[in-house]
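I have been asked to look over a protein record a colleague put together. The record follows directly below this note.
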Amino acid sequence: IATAMILILSQEPKKRKLPAILAFLLLLAGGSYFVQTTLAADISINSGSVEFGQGIARTTTCDNAVLVTPLSRFVNAQGSGSHRFVGVSLSEIDSNSGKCSGKDFIIKAYSNSGSLVNLFSNGGQSYNSLRVYDNAGNFYLVSAGSEMDVISSGENPSADLSNTSFTVTFDTPMADADEVKFISVESTDHVDTGVIYYGSSSYQLVSNEISWQAAYLDITTPVDGQCKYRRNGQCGYFAAITSDAERQAVVSSVGDSEMWLGGSDIQEEGIWKWIDGPQFGTLFSAGYTNWAGGEPNDSGNEDALQTYSGTNTEWNDLPVGDGFHLKYLIEYSPDFRSRTNRLLPTYYDLGTTGPGGGRIFYYSASGFNCGSGFSATGSPTGGKCHYLEAAPRTWSGGAGDPTISWATNVNGNLVTSVTGARETAIGSGYKNSLAIEAQNGNVAASSAAVAARAYRGGSESDWYLPSKDELNELIINRVIADALEGYWSSSEGAADGAWDQGSNGNQGLARPGKQQTTPVRPIRAF
């Protein structure tokens, strides 16, 4: 290990002057050296240009001339101000094989008394060192705290690997510039922390075996408004393998292990895309694939991308939900520092509480037409819906579902047909309900569809009476939806009849019978 001890002679603002000649001690096994430099580093603040510290040419084990430049920022305060030690740059690094590539740089700062200076904080913990890995001119922070968004690192390797550089800045700096007297830079063999590196990306294999759906949710759900997984100021995303070289370097390096990757055809069957990170929305057909023979075959509604174990780590499709639990791969890239796109707002398991406060009773990975027009641009997602949720049993304020007539008689036993209320498919109940609600004079204000439309659970305004097929799904999953009665659907079968379904699963056309009272349960699609 070679250590460069850098003496900072000047930290306070002052007039520009010729760079000072600095002397500092290079500690090597078996000897010590005094080296001089005439390089200075200047910064600018509101009041003009000031000089902070010095740019230092240093000798390390892997290189004989590395330029070290401390960074500061002026922080205004009422009646005073100070310069904060906010980072450090290393440049003129030889990142060729046999030089600094494969080495870690360890950076520390010392006070006048020779004690270590705390550089930055995160989550109440202080850190007094940085560890930066040189992977052929691509630099990665591997020091404590680097997984959180407290550090950002510039990764701009030169085409000439004999002259590379990086800059590390502290989001939460702890030291004033005048506290720092020495900066030390060590170069040593890289310590394997379990992180995988390829090009400018790094990768993390999560060993907890869960479903693809749960893995997607774990990776993409923000924590306190930030990406849950962070490294080097980068946002972790569901990994995308876009070349065979990347596959060999990354997937094959984790051993004989099957895992989830961030690919899916969940939005449209047979149209495979990368669903997270900088490749969000990129079609597999536009680039690299590694499907095993006969795959993908969608055997049992399979919309999730997995890798087989073995030397070729070929791809296969599996279901997104419970039933298959695997490890999953997270990728970090300088091109992805925050998440603006998600495949779906979130994932919900059947029986869990939906955004409207009801129970999720139906899920479609590929999605279904929905909304007022029963179309692929339906409400409320601006595209296809994926879930149905049922209002709670106490939705009307009573202990159970109210019994309401489908429609009120007109002219005795005759009921005028409702135009546009004969759709039966999943997703069409909203369109039916709007049509029923709009047919003033033929439907009483207390009718089943109007009552369902008036419900505002979760402050949502898109509740409706389920269509015939939606009601069938509700009855199939009646236990998890706490829907134990027979109910009206919004699907009209004739001018004097509408479809209902009993708790035993039997569907029937109540004719004549629109005026009869039957339990009502609102649902919504999203």
